[in-house]
Amino acid sequence: GAVVSQHPSWVICKSGTSVKIECRSLDFQATTMFWYRQFPKQSLMLMATSNEGSKATYEQGVEKDKFLINHASLTLSTLTVTSAHPEDSSFYICSAIPGGAYSYEQYFGPGTRLTVT
Amino acid sequence: AQRVTQPEKLLSVFKGAPVELKCNYSYSGSPELFWYVQYSRQRLQLLLRHISRESIKGFTADLNKGETSFHLKKPFAQEEDSAMYYCALTVKAAGNKLTFGGGTRVLVKP
């Protein structure tokens, strides 16, 4: 089946620094990837849609300059949290849709836990 | 904008008992509805899609457009069904973006 990986699985960074999270589709090409944020005991909130070769589309209320998304290839999207603050601490999850006009199923990564101290 | 509501945060049932997870949505058009499941320490995975009209692991879900509901049911719950369940909606015009409900934790007791 389609597998999506994320790296790292857990990261701790100091306030004011930047951290990059990778999302890879291991056995398929993904023209579209999504980034979600999940707070403890809450549901997933879509942050942005990442399209290969074009700019990401951010959801309302998500700061594009703070959460930089790059979809450099058909198997890799990265999320960089810039100038991180403790309130950015959260669980970040990516998903990917295999290519094809009728593709709809999103395959999810295992998530990355970010802790900002 | 579309919205998905799961009114129960926690459902606790005994093994062998029926379980029903409620999901209501708001969207004026024709959405696609899904149920996703997340077992302990595992990633989110698709359980059911309304268009498929299939039964997976004994679970079924029927889309009721009149009541804008997509409730998930299983007649005889098993301990391995204990997990977090999310109802989600997507609209093709929105590029397959998923809107998730708040989730329902199901605990099946022996």
Short descriptors:
heterodimer; A: 117 residues; mainly beta; 7-stranded mixed sheet; 4-stranded antiparallel sheet; B: mainly beta
The helix/strand series of chain B, from N terminus to C terminus, equals: EEEEEEEEEEE
Number of helical segments of chain B? 0
The overall pLDDT of chain B, averaged over residues, is 92
Q: Provide a count of the helices of chain A.
A: 0
Biggest interface reads:
A-B, 21 and 18 residues
Task: From the alpha carbons, calculate the radius of gyration of chain A and give it in angstroms.
Answer: 13 Å
Task: Measure the end-to-end span of chain B.
Answer: 41 Å
Give the oligomeric state.
heterodimer
Shape of chain B: globular
What number is the mean pLDDT of chain A?
91
Give a quick account of the main beta sheet of chain A: strands, pairing sense, barrel closure. Answer: 7 strands, mixed
Radius of gyration of chain B: 13 Å
Structural class of chain A: mainly beta
Report how far apart the termini of chain A are.
Answer: 37 Å
| Largest sheet data of chain B | 6 strands, mixed
Strand content of chain B: over 45%
Total strands of chain B: the figure is 11
Low-confidence stretches of chain B: none
